[in-house]
Amino acid sequence: MATIEARRTTDGAPSYRVKIRLRGRPTETASFARLTDARRWAQSTEAAIREGRYFHHSQAKRHSLREAIDRYKLEVLPNKPASARSQSSQLNWWCAELGGYYLADITPAQIGKLRDKLLSTPRQLRRGEKPKTATSSRAPGTVVRYIAVLSHLFTIAIKEWGWAESSPVAKIRKPREPRGRGRFLSKTECVRLLETCKASSSTHLYPAVVLALSTGMRRGEIFSLQWSQIDLIKQRITIYKTKNGEIRVVPLMDLALELIGAMSKARAPEELIVFPGSGKGPSADIKKSWYTALEDAEIADFRFHDLRHTAASYLAMGGASLLEIAAVLGHKTLSMVKRYSHLSEGHTYQVVAAMNKSLFGKEDNDV
To answer: Is residue 366 domain-resident?
Structure first.
């Protein structure tokens, strides 16, 4: 039942304090400057409590986005090791923009405005990285990931914490992502790049590039690789921390096996990392030598991650199915490898031709 008490503020202005007491529920209170507002709040809030709708809204009014981000980092991010670092940075950005707002007060209009801000604001370049454009703004795909982590935070706040009733992120448009990048090296480009990498002053560049081309491993997987993950006898690498959270075993063979084997023989017994840093970090920094090798090889519009695309492309041209390519690259679904389907058309033709011959072809003893 709701009661309204007329009071005076310290400066003498009228104030109306509402109390709602219902059996089995904590007392809800609020103060208003106008009696009509007090009555309206009392009526709507009491109805919401009786219908079971008030709890989530009241919780959303008690918790700020900053509190939700802090809890998300503590409870959720540790279960996402592959993306924890990048998502922590993305959440810090949202916190700087909206951290002081209560969850109930964040609107789709605010999220939409900040989405546009992300799209138009130049990102900060990493050390040694060259800008792709004059402004080097955030790509639509990057902005989608900023929105995705905020969306997941609200989902957790709604379903598990009871801190919010609805998500404002669900009501905004997400930027349209461009088709997956399909840049890969031609055979002549590959030869030139390997020659310049081999001649580089960086002793880590050549084996790292060969490993990326040979296995399709991600950059992070290569430069966090430890000797304990490599089995030279069984010729394989076991990757425990992957982007999709599943353990992946990668074949190690030919030139990559030869180079890693030579590095294993030459390494110090106390070395744990395959590509150790020079003191400034746990792993090697090959950015400068990488860009130098690209320039010397006269290869344009190419990133280290495109070595992974190159490996996948040559798998497709060699007759590997999309399912096989997905297994090598470590994708859970085929959607990420469909970009290589046109490269395996010859293999697809052979498969369909064999099927048609089996169904409709004539046997040798047929008339």
So the answer is: no
